[in-house]
Each structure stands twice: as C-alpha cells, then as structure tokens.
Amino acid sequence: MKRVDDFRLQLGKHNLVPIMVGGMGVDISTAALSLEAARLGGIGHISDAMVPTVTDRRFNTKYVKDKLKQYKFNVANSDKSVVQFDLGLLAEATRMHVSSTMNAKRGNGLVFINCMEKLTMNSPKDTLRVRLHAALDAGIDGITLAAGLHLGSFALMQDHPRFHDAKLGIIVSSLRALQLFLKKSARSQRLPDYVVVEGPLAGGHLGFGMDWAKYDLATITVEIRDWLLEQQLNIPLIAAGGVFTGSDAVGFLEMGAAAVQVATRFTVTDECGLPDKIKQEYFKADEDDIEVNEISPTGYPMRMIKSSPAIGDGIRPNCEAYGYLLDAKGNCAYIEAYNREVAAHPGEKRIKVWDKTCLCTQMRNFDCWTCGQNTYRLKDTTLQQADGSYQLLTAEHVFHDYQYSTNQQIALPQALLSGV
What we know:
Elements: E1 9-11, E2 14-16, E3 19-21, H1 31-39, E4 43-47, H2 51-59, H3 63-71, H4 87-103, E5 110-116, H5 124-137, E6 142-146, H6 153-157, E7 167-172, H7 175-185, E8 194-198, E9 204-205, H8 217-230, E10 237-240, H9 246-254, E11 259-262, H10 276-284, E12 290-293, E13 302-305, E14 312-313, H11 333-344, E15 352-353, H12 359-364, H13 395-404, H14 413-417
Parallel strand pairs: 3-11, 4-5, 5-6, 6-7, 7-8, 8-10, 10-11
Antiparallel strand pairs: 1-2, 9-13, 12-13, 14-15
Helix pairs in contact: 1-4, 2-4, 4-5
C-alpha cells in the first residue's frame, strides 16, 4: 500500500516531499509553521495578508498605529478614498516578514508566500506590485497567487530580476480560470511552475458560488490534468481542499497530482498562529457547526465556524488603521452595510450587521474562524484531556502522519510520543 512518501514533487532542481502547507492569512500560517514544513522537506507558506499588522505583532513595529494617527481626522467620514497605504512602508513590512523567515530556514524544503489579489488596499495594482516585488527582494522561494484571477500579476513581476528564478504558482478552482490566467500571462513568456487546484471543501474564501456543493475536487483535477496533457504543458498540479489523511493524498497523487496542499489539520498545531483557546473551538466543532456564508466584503463565499464572533458583529469600520479591502475608489461592502444599519437604528450603542463583516478587524482579532469542511474531524486526530480540552499537536506530527500513514489511519499524538 503506497504512502505519500513514495512520491516526490519535482520543482526545478528541488526534489520535495509532495506536501504543501497552505497559506492561511493574518499570521495563522506563521513563519514557524512554514519553517517546519520546509525543514521536513515539503513546502510551507507564510501569507502577505495584512503584513503591516503582522509585523507590528511580531517585530514591535508601529505601522498600524502610525497609519491611524495619520488618518484619524477621517474616522467618522464614510468616504475612505483618502486613506492610502505608504508604498515604501508596505514594502518595508513585507521585506521584514519575508527576510526574517528566510533567514531562519533550515532543511531541503521551500518557503512560499501566499499573495491575495483581493487585498485591494485602496490602490489594487500599485499595492499588489509592491507586495510581489518586496517578497522577491527578500528572497522568498516562491509566490502562490491566491484569491483572484491574477490576470496581470505576472506582468507586474516580469521586470524583477528574480522573475524567472523564484517559483511562481496560481490557485484556481476551474479549468476556465486556469485558461484565462495562461492566456493573459502569455506575454510574460513564462508558465507557472505549479498550479494549485482548490476544491469546494477548502477553508476560508472559495472560488465557487453558493452552489459549491455541486463541485468535486477530483473531477476538477482530472479535467485540468487532461487539458494540460492535451496542450503538452508540463505544469505540476497540486490538489487542495478536503485532503484530510495521507490516504486521501495518495489518491490524488495516483490520479496524476504532483502534490497536495493541506491546511485544516495544521490549524490545531503548536506552530499555528491561532490563539490556543480558539484552537479548542476548532476541535469542538461538529459538522453542523460549519457553514458557507456570504459575509466577506470580497464578494467570495467563505467557510466559517457558525459561532465565530465576527458573524453579526457591528463593529465600526477601522479603515484608517487597516483598510486592506478598500477598492480603487475607497469603498468596502462592509462600510455600506454598517452605515445602513446605523441609519436604521439611530441611537443604538451597538448594532448588528449580519450580511457583511469587517474582515480586516475581525481577522486581526482572530474573531473570524474560517475553516475547512473537515474541521469537525479534528477531534479524531488527538486526545481529549481530563479537563475536556484537546491536546494540541505539533506540525511535525501532522506532517509525518500525512507522509507515512496508510489505510485512512490517523496517528494520535500518544503514538508519536511513544515512538510507534
């Protein structure tokens, strides 16, 4: 019976364990988590979502405080068009986060950064270009383009000296999305080094509509695999979304995927950036506690735990401090929803906003509990302790369980500790 360790992912000169740990934003995929994946011979991701906020937390910088101070005069104004990120400081924060991670890297694996197109930041093209270039400047091994079609992202990088050196990939949820990306990127004279095929069971934002349940990762993967063969394009496919066991992973590797991307099981590891008390909420979740909703201002459906504090919370928009989802005109769907509820409930100290959420503030506060569909199975991967809580895992334990397990078995932490 085959194991994941019987396969290898070949990316240029790199021969890797075919396990990629996905990029969970706002420091949920921490540097520590990505570094463990790389040390063990796979690929880990950090994320560039809200990087100035992350560097404030990790390196005691003052980007958020200083930005709020600069635009405090505009807090009560619904028009946020004036609220701009300083591109030099954005580059500085990105380089700090990336270089610190890369300087600590050990082992034969790689560290990539997940870059979301939907972080429009009141200047979509300029801020995206700065984030991409700064990551390359700081020596990142690769960039995974996420949360959007990224039709112009290769063009934004093609003048960088590392454009043909770093590994560049794209996340898609359909063959059509990949075809559009390849068509628009053709002028760069460069193919992606890998394609992550993300199915409907993934965590966080989904590349599907509310009819997501009609789709299937295996079907999409085979469709893209066959089209690439027909076009004689040798681009490694990485299957993602709902890959919960090593046996699940082997199934995709045997059907032609070059690797799998996994994330849900790493949310409850010591190295994950979620606070420990929230990791317990992930362990406790049952299947009916997980929902796909439309409260994200990005316009994408989002999978979350129903008890997430962000759902229904009517917090005041904090764009002067954050503002990562402001579009090119300084608009955000949450601002519109918030102002509507304020007008409908005059005099109330705390309103409820059910149809949208202030994603920046809620993600910064770890109150938006995005999750994969299989989160309800996490309790079966560990031991329940005398006080009712669940034992946290190490990233190494989870990685090795994917790498070596067979027959849909999951190794409990006690087996790892005893050397079995």
